[in-house]
Design goal:
The chain is mostly helical and 68 residues long. The protein contains two helices and no strands. It has a domain of 41 residues.
Amino acid sequence: MATKRDPNAIVRYFRETGAELRRVNWPTRREAANMTVIVLVSVGVTSAILGLLDFLFSRFFAFIISLG
């Protein structure tokens, strides 16, 4: 037996979404900028560390292979 769909479900969904977005405690522009800088610096540091590890491991394994 098929269930009936509410014809207003989509409208209700968007109304509830709008109501929820009005209740959100949005960060100030300064807070958002600070958090963006923190994320970018974290990504940069993590990328540098992973890049260095990749370089060191590739050199190490190239050295090991050249011995054999």
